[in-house]
Design goal:
The protein is an alpha+beta fold. Helix content is 41%, strand content 26%. It is elongated and about 70 Å long.
Length: 172
């Protein structure tokens, strides 16, 4: 599922549409397991205690799970990067949506950074530099090197007045 067609300009084509890398979901899953383990250990140590105390432990664990896990998963689900033949579009936010559109013609430089962990997981950070002093940084981009190449090809095509030949999509 890509960006809604109504959000694209006339004759604008979507080239890539992606979410941040699923590594963003590791911490919520670790927190889920950790809270469940702590709850089980607490319940085991409180088995001879009053019932209200055991129910209090379960309630605290459920509140922790409901606060920590869904918010982070929803944040991952609602953060997208879209590359079209005219611009880079970022969208994020649960209640308050935040969007940024960067026209390709404004981009002077595209670079990427991949730590060892990023290389093992197949993601990275893209830095899109414009004439302004404030670069646009896209964190945890899946297959950052390929996205870097696609954006670079779009930029070279944009400077020659051409459009890219292939339509590449990643809905992950």
């Amino acid at each position: 599922m890509g960006l809604s067609r109504k959000l694209l300009g006339e004759n604008e084509r979507e080239i890539l549409h992606m979410r941040t890398h699923p590594k963003q979901l590791v911490l919520p899953m670790v927190l889920l397991v950790l809270v469940l383990v702590v709850m089980i250990v607490a319940l085991a140590s409180l088995r001879d205690q009053q019932a209200w105390l055991r129910w209090a432990v379960v309630a605290v664990a459920l509140v922790a799970i409901l606060v920590l896990v869904p918010l982070r998963v929803l944040r991952w689900l609602t953060t997208t990067y879209t590359v079209t033949d005219r611009r880079i579009i970022t969208r994020s936010g649960l209640v308050n949506r935040v969007g940024h559109d960067l026209p390709l013609v404004r981009i002077n430089d595209v670079s990427y950074d991949r730590s060892l962990v990023d290389r093992l997981l197949g993601c990275g950070t893209l830095c899109l530099t414009t004439a302004a002093d404030d670069p646009v940084i896209l964190h945890d981009v899946p297959d950052a090197e390929r996205v870097h190449v696609v954006i670079t090809e779009l930029l070279f095509g944009a400077t020659r007045g051409e459009r890219p030949a292939a339509d590449v999509r990643d809905d992950g």
